[in-house]
Amino acid sequence: xxxxxxxxxxLITATGQRVTLxxxxxxxxLSVYWYQQSLDQGLQFLIQYYNGEERAKGNILERFSAQxxxxxxxxxxxxxxxxxDSALYFCASSVxxxxxxxxxxxxxxxxxxxx
Amino acid sequence: AQSxxxxxxxxxxxxxxxxxxxxxxxxxxxxxxxxxxxxPNRGLQFLLKYITxxxxxxxxxxxxxxxxxxxxxxxxKKxxxxxxDSALYFCAVRDxxxTDSWGKLQFGxxxxxxxxx
Lengths: 115, 117
Prior knowledge:
In chain A, 0% of the residues lie in helices and 52% in strands. By secondary structure, chain A is mainly β. Chain A starts with a strand and ends with a strand.
């Protein structure tokens, strides 16, 4: 158990809908990262938050947004969903700002299916 | 820009035989390199890292990796594979010279390892 909790584990929704994925980092970790894993794109970095502030942005669509709350949990909001958004969304956390140690702790993911 | 390549989609090995999973990278400076493993229906787990120092890095579960700067490679190895090593393995790189990527690890496409009894 990595200590990172993601909910829901599975989510099925329709095109055009909006969903929210939730992540609780390991106790004491200030950085939260979101990754998308799909068969065609592989593992793609979406966005990073550190202590409530956005710190790095990757291949995140404008239809997607995220935030980190004062209690350090994070939410990834996906709107106007398309079939191609079906993927496994991972949250990871680390202690500090920079990924110098490289050790990210991953949750078990939220599998999103868009029908 | 940083990138990482895993040239093999799948590696098949018999239990007890040596296991090698290949990874090559491209960064502008000295790389930070990592290996992660993903078991079915689970998140990624950190195996090992190379930041600086000894080119041979030892990690979890008996795995090790060798950093080769001239060949820009960071191959993962295990002397004697177990059936339980069957999983998806990801190589990742971070370019420490790129300050706008503090949070971003660039992952390879992954290599499926199948260890047969």
